Amino acid sequence: MITLDNLVLSYPDGARRLTALDHVSLTADSGELVGITGPSGSGKSSLLAVAATLATPDSGRVLIDGQEITGLGRDAAARVRREQLGIVFQQANLVPSLNALDQLLAVPTLGGGRRAGRAAKASAVELLEAVGLGAQAKLMPHQLSGGQRQRVNIARALVSSPSVLLVDEPTSALDSQARSAVIELIAELTASNGTSTLLVTHDLQHAHRFDRLVTLVDGAIVEPELAAV
Ligand SMILES: Nc1ncnc2c1ncn2[C@@H]1O[C@H](COP(=O)(O)OP(=O)(O)OP(=O)(O)O)[C@@H](O)[C@H]1O
Questions:
Q1: Which residue range is the domain that position 16 belongs to?
Q2: Using one digit for the tens of pLDDT, what is the confidence trace for 35-58?
Q3: How many Å apart are CA 224 and CA 36, to the nearest integer?
Q4: Sheet of 2-13, strand order
Q5: What is the pLDDT of residue 116?
Q6: Ligand 1 centroid to residue 44 C-alpha, Å
């Protein structure tokens, strides 16, 4: 479970400060997919950055499974990101010289690389199968479609079995068919792995797959609402 508790984040803006997050509180339970939407500049990326320990809020707290992760030192924050968070950004950012399987084995928590043990390989293969790429394990990034690259990206984020998955505009580089497949995949994995998932998106075509949808305007949640099913 991830809890954002009364988060305030501001950036310097000339002589004043610009409020990017204005007392934001939000919880995603285990197995829950929460969509976060809102106009450009409303604070969506700022929210994910704070949740990912990549930005420090002015005030408020982030808790994962009841433990506060705000205000940690650099090493402790890096450990939280490695062990408890899965992070999926807009672009897949795969390593061009590694095949799909090795992208997963290169993640430090899998202790892999060339010397990856059997157990690590088996779990990487299993993850690729879970994202529908069992047959593409040996393909290089340039041999994969945009949608397939994003699936590898998602599988890579799940290597450490994170309790929280943070996803920023995962479909913006994809065509509409790949888009719905990626959202469907994230919804399925959230439910089957019991992950707490925050997914930022402009694209509300697949909002019915969210358990909840919240809208940010000027850094504040304006209308938390049950997604219409
Ligand atoms: N590093 C920064 N320094 C100063 N201001 C920033 C910084 N990052 C974001 N902002 C400002 O904070 C506000 C929220 O930005 P943020 O990127 O979180 O919004 P967003 O909803 O993710 O927007 P988009 O949909 O365009 O990505 C905006 O006014 C933005 O200009």
A1: 2-99+146-221
A2: 999 999 999 999 999 999 999 999
A3: 9
A4: 16-28, 2-13, 59-64, 67-68
A5: 60
A6: 8
Q: Mutation test of ligand 1: which of 7, 18, 198, 215 has the most ligand atoms closer than 8 Å to its C-beta?
A: 18
Tell me whether residue 29 is in a domain.
Answer: yes
Please report the pLDDT score of residue 111 as a whole number: 53
Nearest ligand 1 atom to the CA of 216 is: 21
Query: What is the rounded CA–CA span in Å between residue 170 and residue 152?
Result: 12
Nearest residue to 135 (alpha-carbon basis) of 148, 147, 146, 123: 148
127 is a domain residue:
no
Atom of ligand 1 nearest to the CA of 12: 4
CA 94, chain centre distance (Å): 16
Band (223; pLDDT cuts 50, 70, 90): low
The reply to whether 114 falls in a domain is no
25 occurs within a structural domain: yes
Q: Which residues line the pocket of ligand 1, CB cutoff 6 A? A: 11, 18, 20, 38, 40-46
| Test site for ligand 1: of 7, 10, 37, 44, most ligand atoms within 8 A of the Cβ | 44
Q: What is the CATH number of the domain that holds 37?
A: 3.40.50.300
Q: How many domains does the chain have?
A: 1
